[in-house]
Specification:
Blueprint lengths: L15 H6 L14 H16 L29 H6 L50 E5 L3 E4 L4 E2 L1 E5 L5 E2 L4 E4 L3 E2 L4 E3 L4 E9 L2 E10 L7 E4 L5 E5 L7 E6 L9 E6 L11 E3 L5 E2 L7 E10 L2 E4 L5 E4 L18 E3 L6 E5 L5 E8 L4 E6 L6 E5 L6 E9 L2 E9 L1
Parallel strand pairs: 2-10
Antiparallel strand pairs: 1-4, 3-8, 4-5, 6-9, 7-8, 9-10, 11-12, 12-13, 13-16, 14-15, 14-17, 17-18, 17-19, 20-21, 21-24, 22-23, 22-25, 25-26
């Protein structure tokens, strides 16, 4: 009987061959019981206990026994000596092996499951005189990377022994500029080529990270409904460019597909255009044309598209929010937008009690109080990552919201 009350059975006395090979009465669904999985689990544990000599026949009936205690294996007079031999510490690795059908019971198997193995090390001759694995080299990945100003790059260090077998290490990270934490997360506030080094004792390895200028917003920003990206539209009156800008880490692909039309929902006759993230793409249109568009792109959960909630802008108008334009959705003036460092909010009325800054994921990033004497508020965006933010002014029965782009 299991701890949850489920019954498990062996239908009759198994013979020696059935116990050793894990077959017959040690591998069957007993039809009289309601749970075949419980039957087979119990039968596997019983078979393992017999092969390992884990059943103590001196304990009075009715008392429980722990068949998972490997310190009691092979201590009785009856056990499978073949299994015993291959579990010896000088024959197997950490006394783990796979010597019979149910040797994985209670985690005594040497089997390792991996979805992406890269190396296999085979030891011939046993482990009696095994030399402790010694670190001989270190590598850092990825090598020779490029990121934008303010972006974060995750670097990983791996150690190897003389046989080039990987070892887990805890390196000390350093960089010629910018910042890097003890987990290997690197970022830099200025353009340049930086050297990042992982050090373990007297060994070290380095890689270079080229930090490039981020996208200069020289047009207007369309904040798409999906929230996964925004689009920068140039101010050209004819054939403007659109630049897909991911706003969430991991969004985008080497090539995203852009669909656009001057007629809403006219997707059946519109072809796909390859539009790379952060690279301007020229569309055909003249002043006053309303452009409807959607993207097919990758995300952390697979491929996505914004066709169901497609977005639009007007050529020559750039949508609702333009470069350094004051947000007109609220009565208070909020500028510049996009913002690089200091955001200014001019309050055109009293009654606000606090100001809140939320990021695109809805996390509260900053909050402060507002007094009735205040007519202007300054918000420091210097330490904020590039992306979309929401400024919320709150008071008694009074709320105003503005969407802000941080360059």
């Amino acid at each position: 009987v299991g701890p949850n009350g489920i019954l498990a059975y062996i239908s009759g006395k198994p013979n020696t061959q059935e116990v050793i090979e894990g077959k017959g009465k040690i591998a069957e669904d007993v039809l009289a019981t309601p749970d075949k999985d419980a039957d087979k689990a119990f039968q596997a544990q019983f078979s393992a206990a017999v092969n390992r000599g884990a059943i103590d026949l001196t304990i009075p009936g009715g008392q429980s026994q722990n068949w998972g205690d490997n310190t009691k294996y092979f201590k009785t007079d009856i056990f499978n000596k073949y299994v015993w031999f291959f579990h010896q510490p000088d024959i197997s690795n950490n006394s783990k092996t796979y010597a019979f059908a149910y040797d994985d019971v209670f985690d005594n198997s040497s089997t390792i499951q991996s979805q992406s193995p890269t190396k296999v090390k085979i030891t011939v001759g046993g482990f009696a005189n095994l030399v402790t694995q010694q670190l001989t080299s270190v590598t850092v990945t990825p090598a020779n990377s490029k990121i934008k100003v303010g972006a974060t790059l995750k670097l990983t260090a791996t150690g190897y022994d003389a046989s080039q077998f990987p070892m887990t290490i805890s390196p000390v990270w350093s960089a010629s500029g910018g910042t890097i934490d003890n987990l290997g997360n690197f970022s830099a506030p200025t353009v340049g080529v930086y050297t990042v080094t992982a050090t373990v004792g007297t060994l070290n390895a380095s890689t270079t990270v080229t930090v490039e200028q981020g996208i200069a917003i020289t047009g207007c920003v369309v904040n798409t409904s999906s929230g996964d990206f925004s689009v920068i539209v140039s101010k050209d009156l004819t054939n403007p460019t659109m630049t897909f800008v991911p706003t969430i880490s991991g969004t985008g692909d080497a090539t995203c597909l852009l669909f656009y039309s001057k007629t809403p929902n006219n997707w059946g006759s519109v072809g796909a255009h390859g539009a790379k993230p952060n690279v301007p793409f020229t569309i055909l249109g003249n002043t006053g044309d309303k452009i409807y568009f959607y993207y097919v792109y990758s995300s952390g959960t697979g491929n996505k598209n914004s066709m169901a909630s497609n977005d639009n802008f007007t050529v020559g108008n750039c949508g609702a929010t333009g470069l350094n334009e004051k947000v007109q959705k609220v009565q208070s003036e909020v500028y510049p937008n996009p913002v690089k460092d200091i955001l200014t909010i001019k309050l055109n009325q009293t009654g606000f009690e606090k100001i809140q800054i939320y990021d695109i994921c809805g996390s509260l990033r900053n909050e402060s109080s507002i007094s009735n004497e205040m007519s202007e508020i300054k918000v420091n965006f210097v330490s904020m990552d590039r992306g979309i933010y929401f400024v919320v002014l709150k008071g008694n029965n009074l709320t105003q919201t503005a969407k802000i782009i941080k360059e």
